[in-house]
Amino acid sequence: MFDVQVRDIDCAFKLLKRDVLGAVRIESDRFFVNTELLVKARAKGYRIKETGVDHFPRIYDRSKVSLREIPRTLREVIRIWKSVRRQSAHV
After folding, report:
1. How far is CA 19 from CA 15, 36, 73, 78, 86, in A?
2. pLDDT (tens digit per residue) in 14-40
3. Residue 83: partners with Cβ closer than 8 Å, 6 or more residues away
4. Dihedral over Cα of 36, 39, 42, 44: its sign
5. Domain extents in the chain
6. Which site among 38, 42, 61, 89 is 20 to 30 Å from 19 CA-CA?
């Protein structure tokens, strides 16, 4: 949907050049923030390089993500998609 070719878009471990953060306005405040960052950076022409990160099983506690997050996340997807389309229409 966003033409961002990464294996784990939600991995929160990222290294960025400082100018990327200055160029990308993050609006999400929940689970979509990682996707929004990559989508908007890609739309502005920044290259994305992915390298492997080891993931380990959760030992303590449980995920705080519930089914209630699905509609909110879908709204975020649509909002970001529209935002990126508007941006590319002005280029």
Report:
1. 12, 16, 27, 26, 21
2. 888 889 989 988 888 877 888 888 889
3. 40
4. negative
5. 1-54+66-91
6. 89
